[in-house]
Write a structure and sequence with these properties.
This protein is α/β, with parallel strands linked by helices. The protein has helices spanning 44-58, 74-86, 100-108, 128-138, 152-159, 161-168, 184-196, 248-262, 268-281, 308-313, 326-334; strands at residues 16-18, 29-34, 66-70, 89-95, 112-116, 142-143, 175-179, 202-208, 242-246, 289-294. Strands 1-2-10-7-8-9 form a 6-stranded mixed beta sheet. Bound molecules: 4'-deoxy-4'-aminopyridoxal-5'-phosphate. One of its GO terms (cellular component) is cytoplasm. GO terms for molecular function: cystathionine beta-synthase activity; transferase activity, transferring alkyl or aryl (other than methyl) groups.
């Protein structure tokens, strides 16, 4: 019989897929590490598993304990799956701007979700930060993973993503490109690849325009899961050789192209990372192998990136050579321009 003991054993060992169409005119091989094949649908399953197992070993997380983390996204899903399989409770704290769909995904996996008002100061007792700290203090057996400072976040990539890429490319990878959120992926994977290749692999970070990693002020941008307005300790700046800033518009247009042209329905940070990877690959020759990591699936972004209306509201669909769509033609007719 061939079966897995539980969904936990499906974490990691995700496939590498060649990009064939968005790479037109590029000589280097560009390969995508498709992380939506993880059981929770994102790269964050890797860190959830390692952070929980390390806390079990250190005694910080005891049998029947409760995991408390401020997260509304992929990390929550990963933690919820590993927690339920190992018999822990989860309480996630998220701001009220998070979509009900995301909250319901976490609840579907059995987690409790506490929703906090966005429109209060960080010092207010009901703020996102204060509520999660209070829950940790007041819940018996509570443990907070804190992905931004937990060394097991980058270590999970050092021990899984990095070695997988080295093996899958037969040691031929020359460039690794990934988005930077907590910095765990780039630090752990990039660190391993530098070490095993004797410094031969170039590590490139992709960052939303406005985020601190690419020299921005932390001003808002719409790509989710990447960029920061502070420097987390999970991020090891020494590993990164170059950081490429990418606009929301370029990120989302590439995200849509990946679905249409490569059969990859992925999230906005994936489009962002691919834009950066192609900018790197354009400078390279036929012997170079660029790997770009795609953190999650596009299913969570259907009412945003994959909605024409939402894209149009932000002016993200406009570009020279865009074929007119039915709505455009009607609107122009009404305006008498046709
Ligand atoms: N993209 C998405 C959608 C994410 O959720 C994350 C994690 N915050 C990242 C990219 C960046 O990964 P990391 O936190 O390891 O830097």
């Amino acid at each position: 019989m061939q079966f897995h003991d539980s969904m936990i054993s499906l974490v990691g060992n995700t496939p590498l897929v060649k990009l064939n169409n968005v790479t037109a005119g590029i000589q280097a091989t560009v390969l995508a590490k498709v992380e939506y094949f993880n059981p929770g649908g994102s790269v964050k399953d890797r860190i959830a598993l390692r952070m929980i197992e390390a806390a079990e070993q250190s005694g910080e997380l005891k049998p029947g304990g409760t995991i408390v983390e401020p997260t509304s996204g992929n990390t929550g899903v990963g933690l919820a799956i590993v927690a339920q399989q190992k018999g822990y409770k989860c309480i996630f704290v998220c701001p009220d701007k998070v979509s009900l769909d995301k909250i319901n995904v976490l609840r579907a996996y059995g987690a409790d979700v506490v929703v906090c008002p966005t429109a209060v100061d960080p010092e207010h007792p009901d703020s996102y930060y204060n509520v999660s700290d209070r829950l940790v203090r007041e819940t018996p057996g509570a443990w907070k993973p804190d992905q931004y400072s937990n060394p097991n976040n980058p270590l999970s990539h050092y021990h899984s993503t990095g070695p997988e890429l080295w093996e899958q490319t037969d040691g031929k990878i020359t460039h690794f490109v990934t988005g930077i959120g907590t910095g765990g992926t780039i630090s752990g994977t990039g660190g391993y690849l530098k070490e095993v290749s004797g410094g031969a692999v170039t590590v490139v970070g992709a960052d939303p325009e406005g985020s601190v990693y690419s020299g921005g002020s932390g001003r808002p941008y719409l790509v989710e899961g990447v960029g920061e307005d502070f420097w987390p300790t999970a991020y090891d700046r020494d590993v990164t050789d170059e950081i490429i800033a990418v606009s929301d518009k370029d990120s989302f247009q590439m995200t849509r192209r990946l679905a249409k042209e490569e059969g990859l329905l992925v999230g906005g940070s994936c489009g962002m990372a691919v834009v950066a990877a192609l900018r790197v690959a354009e400078r390279l020759g036929p012997d170079d192998v660029v790997v770009v990591l795609l953190p999650d699936s596009g299913r969570g972004y259907m009412s945003k990136i994959f909605s024409d209306e939402w894209m149009n509201d932000y002016g993200f669909l406009e570009q020279a050579g865009d074929a007119p769509r039915v709505g455009d033609v009607l609107r122009r007719k009404e305006g008498g321009a046709l």
